[in-house]
Amino acid sequence: MARRTPRAVVATAVLGALVFAGALGGAALTRSQTQIAGIPSVPPPPPPSTGPAAGGCLREPCRVVGAATLGDTRIELVADSGGMTGRLRIGSPGASRVIEVGGIGRLVESGPLQCYPASISACLVRAEGEQGLTGVVVVGRSDKWSKLERPYLSTAGFLGLNNVVADSGPEVIAAQCSDEACEYGVYGQVFTLAGTTVGCTRQYASTAELPGYPSVALSSARLGECG
Question: Contact at 8 Å (CB) between 202 and 224?
């Protein structure tokens, strides 16, 4: 795959003070879907849950399948029976906010939750969907958290958060097949949290050869246009 001139990235202001009042678009699923349009608005996040639903459990038995601490904020991913429905429980047990993150498939057994601390922090929940590895992102600062409405997709089995460009939050890195069955290699596709495409890497023989795998780390200098 020929390397092209890197695309200018303009993503630093997109998650400012109004990030929680509007929905941020999802990711393109293939190279041909690199433009995100019609990002819908969503209502402000609900107040912290204090009733029975605060436990984050809809259908017993439930269990915590992932956890992270960002500053003084505790985040737990609670999976219902079968792992088909998940919820992020954010904050202390007595005054936690619960955010639904289901509907994307069966939560992966190994590492379903990844969180990245930054000025605008983000958590990625990963599941096996019909088209491949699917993820949803929840972004937050302090006690204000919101889920991005559209999912991200990897056709080559890797989704992760990492800082690729010099901005206030991480980017989403997705491994994509160069062809339908990944027989001719894979490439890394990078998205801002707003859902716009930053760029794509060159082709690699397999997902495991992406730089830094399994904690894939890319720099903007490695990216070219996706075509």
Answer: yes
Average pLDDT over residues 156-181: 94
* Phi, psi dihedrals of residue 189, rounded to the nearest 5°: -115, 135
pLDDT tens digits for 111-162? 999 999 999 999 999 999 989 999 999 999 867 899 998 899 999 999 999 9
HSE, CB side, 13 Å, CA atoms: give it for residue 118. 22
User: How many whole angstroms separate alpha carbon 17 and alpha carbon 104?
Assistant: 28
Give yes or no for a cis peptide into 214 (omega within 30° of 0): yes
Sequence ranges of the domains in the chain: 106-222
Q: Are 127 and 106 in contact (CB under 8 A)?
A: yes
Structure tokens given for 158: 């890797």
- Asked whether the whole model's pTM tops 0.90, one would answer no
Rounded to the nearest 10 degrees, how much is the dihedral formed by the CA atoms of 224, 206, 112, 226? 20
Identify whether 61 is preceded by a cis peptide bond (ω within 30 of 0). yes
Q: pLDDT at position 203, please?
A: 96
Candidates 15, 42, 175; CA nearest to 100 is 42
Buried b (16+ CB within 10 A) or exposed e, 199-212: bbbeebeebeebee
- Give Cα separations from 47 to 83, 96, 151 (angstroms): 26, 9, 24
